[in-house]
Specification:
The protein has 258 residues and is an alpha+beta fold. Helices cover 44% and strands 18% of the residues. The protein has a domain of 172 residues: 2-Layer Sandwich (Alpha-Beta Plaits). The chain contains 9 helices and 6 strands, in the order αβααββαβααααββα. A 6-stranded antiparallel beta sheet has the order 4-1-3-2-5-6, sandwiched between helices. Strand 5 and strand 6 form a beta hairpin.
Length: 258
Amino acid sequence: MSKLSERISGYQLVTDYKLLPRVPIIISINGRGFAKATQLLDKPHCVKFTEAIMSTMLCLCTEIEGAIFAYQHNDEIVIVANNDQNIETNVWFNGSIQKICSVTSAIATMHFNENALRLHLNMSGDSLFTSQVFVVPTIGEANNTLIFKQQQNFHTSIQSACLYNLLNKFDRNEIKNMLNGLSIDEKINLLDQECHIKFNDYPSSFRRGTACYKAPKIVNGIMKNKWHLNNELPIFTKDTSFLSNLLKNGMDIFRGDQ
């Protein structure tokens, strides 16, 4: 290797950050500028958009090495991956943060745009996705990350339902003042009183998000684990066994030397 090659490679290596091994990986993929990109879609909930983003989530799960669970809400897909399936397991892309982020954002962008075209989704131009990857210390914290994301979705979906339905009667400034300082229950009551809309009548995919994980399925008489899309999720904090059972595949991360 020439001195010039060594010097240039040295510049690259300085920022080639690696993930901590043997702990759960969280990959968060988000739509870039989707408030503008989705402005022509049905609001607050668009069935075709949900179909396109769920298909993108499934594609990511099949492509990401070690993926065990994915959760989707709004334009965000959060994937939990296991990087320690066995003693010989190598981290995906050797744990390179730059490669994981660039590949996952590229996969999401390409697949979502293909589905948007197929579904005649009225997006404002081509959609782009960004990606962030980090690790959490335990599978319990991976569980808590998913709980936080579902709670975040719950707040966002109620706010969105109130905003877009109240726009039929009030302007945005009035709505902002009406919603300011209200609790979740008060916003749900306001939606019912002013718009005669029950928040719980919205699809579960809007209120609780959707998920992708492996589930047993009989294929040609043989039981196999296949990726499964679920748009009827429980509330994670109420059905605590749902996430814990699905994330048990990641418990192998914490075994001792055998």
